[in-house]
Amino acid sequence: MTPQAYERKRERELGKHRAGRARQLQPQAKDPRVWNREEYVRLEQDSFIVFVDRLPGDISKELFQLFSWTGRINDIYLSRKMRNGDVYLFAFIRYTTNGRALKAISKMNSMRLRGKEIFVREAKYKRYLQGKDCGRHQRYKEKGGGW
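Request: output the structure for the sequence above.
Response:
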């Protein structure tokens, strides 16, 4: 193959690649599975959070299965801490509706799970998000404290 033929072939291949790349960069329909910050903040403000305490040390994915029958769960935060040399587990479960969260509290509180009685209640505080005061931050300011 001559150098000129090789150059022409290379330009054609690069042209196809560039054209293909341009097609990929065109705006596409928004994928509903992809979350952005605004959607996350809206979900955080419109959801209802349940606090689950005294969980057994070997629970993980089955926590979702255990609570999903009460309603649609947005997400679960499971925390493992060490207390007095033992593993201490608690979780926050975020529901889409208040009714489902209250159902989880009434049906699942004091339930025995692997020999331990779990404690389920509404979470007291929400996180501090985008300059908006939630929960304890607002109460702290009302009592005369300030940041």
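The beta strands are 48-55, 73-83, 86-95, 112-113, 116-117, 119-122.
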